[in-house]
Predict the 3D structure of the following.
Amino acid sequence: MPGERINGTVLTFFSTASAVGKTLISINMASELAKAGAKVCLVDLDLQFGDVCNYLLLDPSHTIADLQKGIQTQGSECDVASFLCPYEYDGTVFYVLASPKKLEEAYNISEKEIKEIIRRLQTMFEYVIIDTTSMFSVVNLMLLDLSTIVTFLGIVDFIPTIKNMKIGNDTLRSLNYDENKIRLVLNRSDAKSRISMRDVERLLGVPFDFILPNDFRAASKSIKTGVPLVLEDEGTELSKSLRELVSRYTNRVYAGDESYETENSGGSGWFSRLFS
């Protein structure tokens, strides 16, 4: 567990539709960053129906509901680290803050204390990755403000999903964030659909920043085994694309064969563009 005080980057995965792959992608983001040696915490803030622990086959002793109680009773003396659940596979380790186990606990999670929790995690980890629920709730709006980069995920399947993507994208753009803060990512791009991706881009008024391929078999196997795709690579296009997606957040270029090369041109990663 990290001990020195740092100021971690907050990466939030958000969508206006369900079942778009937020959890799978956030888990692989955490895994790839941790495999590269970073200190990472993945926070499941889909408070009612969070699936991070289900996907990783974890049975946490504590959840964010317990941590909130700890902060309420102990204040600054509360040991946040003791409420985290480690995930380890083949030498790669990151930590998970689980969503509540009971549905009624989700209604008692305070926006103020969630913000306090994220701030504390930032002092412990280089990356705090947040998996959210699919709505513009008060909590999610706070998280969007707090985030370094927001990855807005969409899929091209049905008209209502695309309509919600359009509304969500327009709403995010209206919040007047830095133009590089919001990253628009299309998941399952080659799934069977009569709707053209280019037509969707014209409707949105902006192109997708990144496109992930569809691979239901690989994703299903990952969930069944509890092993993120990037940690048990069988050479699938999806695992390669997930690695490349992670590299887009940094100044490193994924070169295949589990290696990275550092950018020499001043950095074209999303962090560089955001802070330049």
User: Anything to note?
Assistant: The longest strand covers residues 9-14. Residues 3 and 124 are 7 Å apart (CA to CA). The two ends are 31 Å apart (CA to CA).
